[in-house]
């Protein structure tokens, strides 16, 4: 296949991806700062000041109990183990039908509840991602746009397929920047002929400037574009990404409990959340010791029950975690017997798993501190710019093809506008 084939392939891949990547890039500018922007958009529900100096918040499991007592029939299956000082506790509620597992028809039009961690008082509610409810849902809606165009599971799948095309097109685009191979000996060396692809002619015509920004801009951040493309496949298309990583030596730690679906959901496991927390902490200590890892107190911890599999997941932070958020290590165990089902150690055990941990953390700006968060915002802007310049190049070339065809149809005469 000649170079022209790949030019056409890159053109149509770019046109197909333009909407997805422009939206993902633009929203990604802001998602690096999602925590701060959530507070800015709705401080009344996001913040909760201590009532007095040195006040100690209630345990999150106690707050869960109080909320469930207030809303009979509701479920809270995910509980963070700590709350950032000065912030509220966010709890996600569902009202499932025991037979179908789907939310009941009479379920209220909200699922996020914010409570004061010191008193248990309600601070506000929202239906996550429903922008019609106002600014309190601005960042959740932005997040929904980022990964699915706010179109649910079909948007998630479409974004996953787009990410897969993006991975392949990264290599096609890189190839097209390379110098054309000629039969006759070139007067300049190969690198000298490739150098113009990295440059931007700032004083050139608007079309040349646009072309240079597209070509050179893609080259400047090419490794990062590939990282974001691959991590997007990981997030949105695990049914493709997982088997590929396993073929490369990775282990799908989560599949042990996520794929072990019960004939019917187990809504009431024998282990309560309090018992499950104790069991999870014990398993975490044992697994960390077995892997010669240290448990860290500076990262996230959570407890999550999955009725469809009857399993608890206890997330904790170990020395194998690279994210400043932590919580990447976890143990999964049976909700009745407490038997260990799965262990995830994010780095150090399998090269493919370590690779995945790093590309996902880079994508979500959970490593590198403020400097990398700024870089991720800039990358989002660059991705948006590449989409816009790519469309401009296509429109310009399409206009040229139309004009050439029109001249041919009129015997080569120059057609002047009326």
Key structural traits:
418 residues, 3 domains, 9% strand, elongated
Question: Would you mind describing this structure in some detail?
Answer:
The protein is α+β, with helices and mostly antiparallel strands and 418 residues long. The chain has 3 domains: 1-26 and 137-180 and 189-250 and 368-406; 34-136, no CATH class; 252-349. 50% of the residues lie in helices and 9% in strands. The protein has helices at 3-31, 34-41, 43-46, 60-70, 138-148, 152-177, 190-194, 206-220, 222-236, 238-247, 255-258, 273-290, 351-363, 369-409, and strands at residues 78-80, 89-92, 112-115, 122-126, 302-306, 311-316, 329-334, 340-344. The chain has a 5-stranded antiparallel β-sheet with strand order 1-5-6-7-8. A 3-stranded antiparallel β-sheet has the order 2-3-4. The chain is elongated, with a radius of gyration of 26 Å. The relative contact order is 0.12. The model has no long low-confidence stretch (mean pLDDT 92).
Number of domains: 3
What is the CA-CA span between the terminal residues?
A: 43 Å
Low-confidence parts: none
As a whole number of angstroms, the C-alpha radius of gyration is 26 Å
Q: How does the helix and strand content classify structurally?
A: alpha+beta
Sheet with most strands: strand arrangement:
1-5-6-7-8
Helix run count: 14
Q: What is the succession of H and E elements? A: HHHHEEEEHHHHHHHHEEEEHH
Major beta-sheet overview: 5 strands, antiparallel
Strand content: 5-15%
The number of distinct β-strands equals 8
Give the integer mean of the pLDDT values. 92
Helix content: 40-55%
Please tell me what the overall shape is.
Answer: elongated
């Amino acid at each position: 296949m000649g170079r022209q084939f790949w030019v056409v392939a890159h053109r149509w891949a770019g046109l197909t991806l333009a909407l997805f990547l422009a939206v993902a890039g633009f929203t990604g500018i802001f998602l690096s700062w999602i925590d701060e922007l959530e507070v800015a958009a709705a401080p009344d529900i996001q913040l909760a000041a201590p009532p007095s100096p040195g006040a100690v918040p209630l345990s999150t499991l106690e707050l869960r109990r109080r909320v469930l007592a207030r809303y009979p029939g509701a479920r809270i299956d995910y509980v963070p183990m700590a709350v950032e000082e000065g912030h509220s506790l966010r709890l996600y509620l569902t009202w499932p039908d025991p037979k179908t597992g789907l939310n009941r028809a009479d379920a209220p039009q909200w699922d996020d509840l914010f409570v004061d961690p010191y008193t248990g008082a309600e601070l506000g509610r929202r239906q996550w991602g429903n922008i019609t409810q106002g600014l309190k849902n601005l960042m959740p809606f932005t997040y929904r746009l980022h990964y699915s165009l706010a179109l649910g599971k079909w948007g998630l799948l479409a974004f996953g397929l787009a990410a897969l095309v993006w991975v392949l097109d990264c290599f096609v685009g890189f190839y097209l920047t390379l110098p054309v191979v000629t039969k006759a000996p070139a007067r300049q060396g190969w690198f000298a002929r490739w150098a113009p692809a990295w440059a931007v002619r700032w004083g050139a015509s608007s079309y040349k400037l646009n072309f240079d920004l597209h070509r050179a801009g893609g080259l400047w951040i090419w490794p990062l574009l590939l990282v974001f493309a691959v991590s997007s496949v990981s997030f949105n298309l695990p049914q493709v990404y997982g088997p590929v990583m396993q073929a490369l030596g990775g282990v799908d730690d989560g599949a042990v409990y996520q794929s072990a679906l019960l004939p019917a959901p187990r809504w009431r496991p024998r282990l309560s959340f309090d018992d499950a927390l104790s069991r999870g902490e014990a398993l975490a200590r044992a697994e960390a010791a077995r892997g010669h890892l240290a448990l860290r107190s500076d990262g996230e911890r959570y407890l999550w029950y999955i009725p469809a599999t009857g399993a608890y997941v206890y997330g904790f932070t170990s020395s194998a975690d690279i994210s400043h958020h932590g919580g990447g290590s976890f143990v999964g165990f049976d909700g009745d017997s407490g038997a260990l089902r799965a262990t995830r150690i994010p780095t150090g055990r399998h090269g493919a798993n370590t690779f995945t941990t790093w590309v996902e953390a880079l994508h979500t700006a959970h490593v590198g501190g403020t400097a990398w968060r700024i870089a991720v915002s800039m990358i989002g802007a660059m991705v948006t710019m590449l989409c816009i310049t790519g469309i401009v190049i296509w429109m310009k070339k399409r206009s040229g093809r139309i004009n050439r065809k029109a001249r041919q149809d009129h015997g080569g005469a120059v057609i002047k506008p009326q």
